[in-house]
Amino acid sequence: MTKNTKNEFKKDEKEYIDINYINTSEGIEYLKKIGWKGFVFTQNVHLSKKVEKNTAGKSDKIEVEKTDYSKEKYLECKELGNTAGLNVYSGILLYASGVKDLEKGIKKYRGKCDVLMVKGGDLDINRFALEKDDVDILTSPAFRRLDSGIDHITARLGSVHRVGLNLNFSDILVKKGYEIARLLNSYQRNIKLAKKYNTPVIISTGAKNMYQIKSPENLRSFLTTISNLEYAKLSMGQMNNIISYRTKLKENNVLMYGLEFEKVEKKAENIEKEI
């Protein structure tokens, strides 16, 4: 990164928010030190079906929800964030093997977090997540795929329903050789589709430990190599936009985004006069 680009980055510095799994004081302080203003503390929720045999020897499908979600974990992490001067938001990442499981998971966990995410990869899962207003982010749509996991139809759905595509930088860190090139190619394809249909694109570290943490400057430099500087700036601010959108929806006088009713409060004296 050149000096001019670095200076431009500092001038353009906003409320950059990461998505990761960091929950230690050391990690949170480091996030603050390298320029993050906040992060979404992510907890995974696995929705699956366990197969067991009954007394007749036949297989019964019993729905089992394996989860590491804990409100207490989030509150502890938030307290550490407050001490370090960093905003911490609650995030849940849903893993589902089918659309029915995912639909149940969305209904159950939407009200329990600030940011609801879906782990992609399966085409049906990708599409279902992108057409749900209650989902904020589809992450890793190309997971275990030879293609990018997104086409013109699903990119348009993401735009209509305000569901962002997350480019998880930690996905690259665990790849080798040709796999890295293929993943970068899928990123470029999805960015191209996102630009065409105005679908939000987010980039995050997805860090699970100190060694995977990257600065906002590092991520924006990476985005610039696969898109351009202006688009990198836009993507870096999308996470803040998503949180602002969800915060707005939680207000009591908001029926839906863009549709609010005005609260009219009358004094007791005026009410008595009218009666």
Radius of gyration: 21 Å
Helix content: 40-55%
Number of strands: 10
State the CATH class: Alpha Beta
The succession of helices and strands, N to C, reads HEHEEHEHEHEHEHHEHHHEEH
Give the overall pLDDT as a whole number: 86
Give the biggest sheet: 8 strands, mixed
In CATH, the architecture is Alpha-Beta Barrel
Question: What are the segments in which pLDDT stays under 50 over at least 5 consecutive residues?
Answer: 51-55
Q: What is the third-level CATH name, the topology?
A: TIM Barrel
Helix and strand composition category? alpha/beta
Beginning-to-end CA distance, first to last residue = 71 Å
Protein name: Ribonuclease P protein component 3
Subcellular location: Cytoplasm
Keywords: Cytoplasm, Endonuclease, Hydrolase, Nuclease, tRNA processing
Enzyme class: hydrolase
